[in-house]
Backbone:
């Protein structure tokens, strides 16, 4: 292409790909004419960059054939500089239609796999809640709070925490239903059985090849910063951030909701609990954000 944007030489493959004849090019076809309208402004900007001395690799555009149909291309271009003067540019155009089709097929396969994974997770979550009807909806509400936008999480951590929250009590399927629904105070022995549910959940979930450490987060959601939690009594930074977020959301929702052994204590009591134990049992940053969600943002749990 010369410095005015006119195509001055094309090879036979270019003629075939774009559907033009040599005569069409000889009549003065411009480089912009072989770019689809939606990408022409960007193409003009890049042409000026190259004519100013830049080299551009892998610029992606939609190209346009003579018949008006479009297709994706990558263009690599560099200035032509004889005698220290830029007189035009040369470009290599690569048709990436097959690559784009493969990417779309791969994307669709991933989306179907993700749908299947989401379905399996929700099925497990539902199974756990059937065993413990008094906490029906608990996991969903914990997930709702844990991924609230005020947590300022990126998309990937949000998905990870949501998946963990929606299934964090799956280990309760191993706890006898008479303990789960017992209206009175649990005995020490009964509470020890309850305390096995994070480990059981981990043992169930570790067999599933999630793209994130879901099983590990579920294992740690009852651990506390000072090491007083269960099942392993780990402390501080040994507890992953996702589990620290999940544990605060879990405590707040549990205290605010009705349980067979007590009436709902309410949000105020729940926030008082995490505030008084900030930095002792619960991550202080997570507590601060959680309190702000309720006090400043007026967050409310979905009653469903």
Residues:
């Amino acid at each position: 292409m010369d410095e005015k944007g006119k195509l001055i030489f094309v090879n036979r493959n270019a003629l075939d790909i774009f559907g033009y004849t040599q005569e069409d090019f000889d009549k003065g076809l411009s480089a912009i004419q072989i770019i689809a309208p939606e990408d022409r402004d960007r193409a003009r900007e890049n042409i000026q960059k190259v004519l100013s001395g830049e080299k551009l690799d892998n610029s992606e555009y939609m190209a346009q054939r003579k018949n008006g149909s479009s297709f994706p291309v990558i263009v690599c271009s560099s200035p032509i500089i004889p005698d220290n003067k830029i007189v035009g540019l040369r470009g290599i155009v690569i048709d990436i239609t097959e690559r784009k089709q493969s990417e779309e097929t791969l994307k669709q396969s991933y989306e179907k796999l993700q749908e299947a994974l989401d379905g399996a997770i929700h099925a497990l979550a539902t199974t756990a809640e059937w065993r413990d009807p008094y906490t029906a909806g608990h996991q969903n509400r914990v997930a709702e709070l844990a991924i609230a936008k005020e947590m300022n999480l990126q998309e990937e951590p949000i998905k990870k925490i949501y998946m963990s929250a929606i299934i964090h009590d799956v280990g309760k399927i191993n706890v006898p239903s008479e303990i789960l629904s017992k209206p009175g105070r649990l005995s020490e022995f009964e509470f020890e059985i309850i305390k096995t549910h994070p480990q059981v959940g981990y043992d169930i979930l570790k067999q599933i090849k999630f793209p994130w450490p879901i099983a590990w987060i579920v294992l740690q959601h009852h651990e506390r910063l000072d090491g007083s939690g269960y099942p392993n009594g780990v402390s501080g930074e040994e507890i992953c951030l996702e589990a620290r977020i999940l544990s605060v959301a879990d405590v707040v929702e549990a205290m605010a909701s009705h349980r067979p052994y007590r009436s709902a204590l309410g949000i105020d009591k729940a926030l008082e609990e995490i505030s008084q134990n900030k930095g002792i049992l619960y991550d202080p940053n997570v507590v601060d954000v959680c309190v702000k969600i309720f006090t400043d943002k007026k967050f409310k749990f979905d009653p469903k």
